[in-house]
Design goal:
heterodimer; A: 552 residues; alpha+beta; Beta-Lactamase; Heat Shock Protein 90; rod-shaped; disordered C terminus; B: 228 residues; alpha/beta; Rossmann fold; Arc Repressor Mutant, subunit A; 23% strand
Chain lengths: 552, 228
Amino acid sequence: MTTSLLSTWRTRLEGVVREMRLRARIAGRATWRHYRRSLQLRVALITMAVAGAVVVIISVILFNQIRTQQLEAKKDAAISQAQVGVQYARNQVVAVPSGDPRSIRETLQRTVDELRTRGGSAGQFAIVMINRDTPTPLTQPSFAGLTPALPADLISTVGEGTQTYKYAVMPTEGGAAVPSLVVGAPVPSQAGSYELYYVFPLDQEQRSLEDIRSTVVVSGLALVVLVAGIGTLVTRLVVSPVRLAAQTAEQLASGQLERRLPIRGEDDLARLAGSFNRMAASLQRQITQLEDLSRLQQRFTSDVSHELRTPLTTVRMAADILHSARADFAPDVARSAELLQTELGRFEGLLTDLLEISRYDAGAASLAAEPTELGPLVRRVLAAADPLAQQREATLHLTLPGDPVIAEIDPRRVERILRNLTLNAIHHGDGGLIDVTLGGSRTAAAITVRDYGPGLNNEEASRVFDRFWRADPARSRHGGGTGLGLSISREDARLHGGWLQAWGRPGEGAQFRLTLPLVQGVELEGSPLPLEPRAETIDPYDLLARPTGANS
Amino acid sequence: MIAARSRVLVVDDDPSLAEMLGIVLRAEGLEPAFVANGARAVSAFREVRPDLVLLDLMLPGADGMQICREIRQESLVPIIMLTAKADTVDVVKGLEAGADDYVVKPFKPIELVARIRAQMRRTDTDHPETLAIGEVTIDVAGHQVRRDTTAILLTPLEFDLLVALARKPRQVFTREHLLEQVWGYRHAADTRLVNVHVQRLRSKVEIDPEHPEIVLTVRGVGYKAGPP
């Protein structure tokens, strides 16, 4: 019972401690972050620390000096007064005939009384005269309790015949013990060895020193705060323009190119603002120039497009009519009509691709994204590519996931990518199987197109998206591609914030993977399908035998 | 329903292309008329009274878009744009200005003819058929659409689009499906055609096009008719 209660408490306590530690850590981290981020705070704190250290050192030295001086002055005055008193006492004692203790005592009492009434520069004092040989004081002390409080070592030193002094805590007439200066001196006479003691209480000095100390502390603190305040103020003078500059730079970066800093005066900050503004102006000029250039390029592209396309249309139509009438021509003319027709097709394709890529280069391509189900789209592309696949004796095989994959895409562009990838696979697959796979995750969609042709090596896989690059210059001309298809496809994928990647291995074929984010503007973190196909133990030619339900 | 010799007005400033278009159209049994000057296009249209207009979008001295709009204001005749730019806003602007379809240069004659035929071969039924979506009634044989008693003027294409939706009230049509059924495209085409024409149709048949009740959007899929 007790143990369990104890353990509960312990747990609770540990919890509290842990939370406090956590809070302290959080608060500490927040303060540290603030300290690191705020130049003003840093300067204020550093100034305060330095000023504090300097003030403490100066105060300690100053205070010690004042104290030493005060005590020295007091000591000198006290000793000289004591000396005068001792001289007077000696003279009195010498005049007394020896042997008559009563008259000696009276004389001594009179002397002490006389001395007591004499003031001096050393201020208030108490006085007593003792005889070392007799236990009782020779004279009435200034007040009771003074004689026994005299420090023993002082008495013994005086007993050796030397005048000396000592600081000690002595009682006062009021009873309170205060630090005092005790001066003792022997008063030699035939009647016995008398000793005269002066006690100068130092309470006044102490009080004045305390006053000085508190004054020093208060003024030191005030000084530190003042210095920190000045530091803060001065840094604010510097920091606020810097902060303004930072803010303006942010605005410039976010596209508000006309933002400038106000210039006040002719100091360094004004110069900073001036150079900043010149930099901003130059940036603005260059950006505007680039924008103009881009607009010009766009304009040029569109003009070229129109100017080239209109005559090409006429040529195309004429060629078509010639081509459809080729049966009536002589063999050479008929063949010429055929060549005209096919080469016009290539020319058109090249023109279209060139204009498309120049639009990308001009930064004029825009995305018309809408939520689209990818399954039917892929199916459509494959259906359109099927005639060519059959002609090339290739088999298209489509694998779709169980759930529909819907992504925000520009269907025209994605269709173009897939068409390019599929046609590419048909051209390079050497009439084998072509596997097209669609996959989806919660954030991304992916489509892979795999062929089992001669394949690509690593270097080729990395260059396959280069413009006009051909895997095998000797062989590929009849392929019919423009050499720009994959470059455009990659730009199309990039415009979506997606990836288009190639994998290949000589003898094992190639795989292209398109990965697209499901929602536009979301950064891709991974792809639902692997780029490198899993090592399949199945011979691809076995796959030809299996039913291909989705491929046509 | 195609007249023995349907007239086609070709608005194009390029003489070679116009002549070539003429050859192709005549080979198809159509009767072409030509106007090269954009400024004269509308008056030529009034004179010729064609069954279809082929309009080049980029005409010097005149805005193809403006001509399209002016012709549409006085006629429901099908308009096919000839454009060099397929994927710019120009196509959408042209469609919004009233064009029914577009062909991208360079095109094959067979492609152009297919587009022309598709626009001229509009829904024709002899037996009477009446359809209804909400308060809108469609007399299919009589080519008439009414909201209550007010007649709504639709182009043949808009009419066909509405009829296609109204005939299968519960079916959701994908854009591709509509492109095939209404525009006669057999392969994938520009789905913007559907989007723009649905907007145009809505602006005529809906009370509030922002909150459609006749032609409803099925997000991510396509369109369907509102409840009858």
